[in-house]
């Protein structure tokens, strides 16, 4: 019988933290010569004055050290999954930065600045509910338009309005909608923002922080689409 081994977070931290800033990886980047990883901004700043890995002294590309750096999306996804709140906090920090930059660059764009500042005053909380609308994407509607599966086509094509917990994940939303919208089991449902598939582990709260929803951002996610795979 297999036994489950629990690993303490303190044991994982050395593999999730940047040796340059001491924090968890943000935009993780890996040096291809030695496979040591750092925050992207940290290692880029370091390589402006040095041509060696800060951990093992392996030499990076002599003439163009940036060629030795590769974004490590897999590692970053692992960090976000293992460190609660890190992704949300980073997205909020970026929104605050872009809002500040936008206001300093053009003070006349008061309407946009007001929208961002309003969203920053009352960030969404996990225990809140978020309103959203959902509809099949055009490709999904075409996929369902066969004689057998088009009996409820008009019903399926209609815009649905939902109110869901902010902590609800894309995975759970997709499963719920597959049943709610009578999608045949031979299809896998995916949730789209415009034409971009959303990651399964995103919560509605994450989506609200990542994408520009406009006024009322943190209370109403806006419109999402259903795709079929």
From TrEMBL:
Residues 18-57 form the RING-type domain. Keywords: Metal-binding, Nucleus, Repressor, Transcription, Transcription regulation, Zinc, Zinc-finger. It comes from the Eukaryota. Its main location: nucleus. The keyword Transcription regulation applies. It is found in: Nucleus. GO terms for cellular component: PRC1 complex. InterPro entries: RAWUL (IPR032443), Znf_RING (IPR001841), Znf_RING/FYVE/PHD (IPR013083), Znf_RING_CS (IPR017907). Transmembrane segments: none annotated. Residues 101-126 are annotated as: Disordered. GO terms for biological process: negative regulation of transcription by RNA polymerase II. One of its GO terms (molecular function) is promoter-specific chromatin binding. PROSITE patterns: ZF_RING_1, ZF_RING_2. PANTHER family: POLYCOMB GROUP RING FINGER PROTEIN 2, RING FINGER DOMAIN-CONTAINING, POLYCOMB GROUP COMPONENT. This is Polycomb group ring finger 2 S homeolog isoform X1. The lineage of its organism: Eukaryota, Metazoa, Chordata, Craniata, Vertebrata.
């Amino acid at each position: 019988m297999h036994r489950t081994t629990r690993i303490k977070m303190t044991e994982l931290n050395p593999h999730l933290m940047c040796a340059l800033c001491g924090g968890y990886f943000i935009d993780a980047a890996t040096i291809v010569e030695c496979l040591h990883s750092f925050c992207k901004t940290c290692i880029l700043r370091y390589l402006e004055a040095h041509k060696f890995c800060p951990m093992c002294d392996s030499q990076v590309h002599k003439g163009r050290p940036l060629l030795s750096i590769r974004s490590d999306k897999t590692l970053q996804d692992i960090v976000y999954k293992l460190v609660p709140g890190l992704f949300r906090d980073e997205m909020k920090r970026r929104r605050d930065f872009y809002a500040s930059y936008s206001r300093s660059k053009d003070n006349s764009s008061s309407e946009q600045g007001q929208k961002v500042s309003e969203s920053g005053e009352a960030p969404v909380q996990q225990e809140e509910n978020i309103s959203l609308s959902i509809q099949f994407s055009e490709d999904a509607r075409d996929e369902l338009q066969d004689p057998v599966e088009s009996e409820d086509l008009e019903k399926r094509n209609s815009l649905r309005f939902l109110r869901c917990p902010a902590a609800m994940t894309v995975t759970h939303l997709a499963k719920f909608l597959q049943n709610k919208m009578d999608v045949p089991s031979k299809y896998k449902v995916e949730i789209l923002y415009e034409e971009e598939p959303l990651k399964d582990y995103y919560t509605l709260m994450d989506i609200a922080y990542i994408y520009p929803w406009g006024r009322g951002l943190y209370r109403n996610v806006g419109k999402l689409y259903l795709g079929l795979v």
